[in-house]
Each structure stands twice: as structure tokens, then as C-alpha cells.
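Bumping with the actual sequence this time:
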Amino acid sequence: MTIDKRAVAGHLACAAAYAIFGVNVVVCRDIATEGGLPPVVLFSMRALVAGALFWLLSLFTPREHVPPRDILRLCGAGMLGLFLPQLTFLHAIAHTTPVDLSVMSSTTPVFTMLVAAVFLREPITWKKVIGVAISFGGVVWLITQSSFSGGGADHTEPVGIVYCFANYIVFAIYLGTCRPLISRYSVVTSMKWMFLASFVVSLPFSLPRMGGVDFGAVPGQVWWEIGYLIFFSTFLAYYLVPLGQQRIRPTLVSMYGYLQPIIAIAIAIAVGQDRLTPTKVAAALLVFAGVWEVTRSRAAVEPVREAGNDV
């Protein structure tokens, strides 16, 4: 059996990125409740620093010519893959519990599979459907057990649910439509234009709010969490996700989102807020069994036709 090194690299990149996102759920919840920073201001900070890092990194990588038409498309991809998903996530985490947010995140592969089928003509096979269903069941089972293990005062508001599903739908559209465009250029080239466009678009919304923020009153711990959010969850993770996009199918990329609730629960166990049970182990195995079932699909491993629609 020949090992596809590109596919392996894609899986490793996605696994690392979504592990970072899993920690990010806990970090962002703390920032949202303790930091006193409006979501759009926090997004502008993320886009400014991460974008500057990508532009700086581009000075040490081979220069690529990007025609004006593709620059505009990358700007559009920035709206779908960065601005709208990150902004809706920051709003959602302020109105939901991390557990509820993780439950709803398990719908992302379903949206991605449908979008990829429409825009990239990616076949919906029975193995994919079964794999998504198995992983979905595992995640729901896992988080249901965690939810009943303790009672907190936090609760999810309806507006939080709206923001959650807006986040997952928009990011699914990005994963399902932008692969041909992202595959044309290096990750650094794509990300530097996408972050620049996102930062510029965010300024009219964030600048009026910055005057009302007391940055000096932000706790030191929150600044460390913001540092994690900007470097790991924004710069590093958004370097890894396009690597995965270039190497494996959109549905597979989105399915690594199932790592988020597993990581969040693992953190809770590590700090004594939860405990490991045979039920949770079995549920986690279901999640990975579903991913494995999708990888066995012929449509999942065959190369994607690049002549599709993109943003």
C-alpha cells in the first residue's frame, strides 16, 4: 500500500489546527467574560498582528505573482474564511457555554459536504454519510455525558445559537468553495491577502468602539490569553488549515472540527472539572471511527478537479 505523503501532511495539519481551536474555545470564553473587549475590536487586533506576521513571513518565501482578479477573490475568501467566521464565533462564545458550542460545531461537516457537492461536485457517498453520522453520534454522546457531569450557572442564549450556526455555515461555504483558489498559491501568499482584506473591512466597525475600551483595565491573564488567541489560534492555525485544504477533501478538513470538544473536555479533566469514564472513551472512539470511514471513501482520496467555482 502506497502512502500518500501529501494526504498525511494534510491530516496532520488539520489535526494540529483543530486541536488549537479546541483550546481556543476555553480561552475565548474567558476573554469574552473577563476581557471587556468588543468582538470586532478583538478581531481587528487578531487580523492586524496575524496579517503582519504573514506579510513579514512572505519576505522570506518565494515571491508569487497574484493577478488583480485573484487578489479580489482572495479578499472574498478572507470574508468567508476569516472575517465572518471569527466575528460570529467571538459573538457566539459570549452567549453560549463551551459545551453547547461544541455540540453545535458537529454540524459543520454536514454543511461542508453539501456545499462541496454543489460547488466542487464532490460526490456524497454512502461511506461519507455513514462516517459523518458515526462521528456526529460520538460527539453528541461524549458531550451529553460531560454536560450531565456538573451543573454550572452558565447557559446558552438563543442569540448565541444563531451566531453559532452562522459561524458554521459561513465556514462550511469557505471550505466547500475556496479550495481551488487556495490551492493556486502558497499558504503565506493566500493568508497575507486574506488577513489584509479582513483587517481593512473590520476597521469601520472597530475604530468607533476602541475609544470606549479601557485597555489598562484588561487583566494580565487575559492579555496572555489574547496572545494565545492571536499567535496560535489565528496565525499558526490559519497557516495549518490551508495546508490541509490543499491536500485533503473539504469534508475531511471540516471533520477534524470534532477534535474541538474532545480537547475541551480533556482540559476540563486535566484541571479536575471532569473525569474520564468508559462511556467517554467509547464516544471518542466513535468520533475517530467516523473520520476513518470517510477516509475510506473513494471520493475522499481522489484528487479534486480544480476547474470548479471559487470565490
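The C-alpha cells above came from a reply further down the thread. The mean pLDDT is 80.
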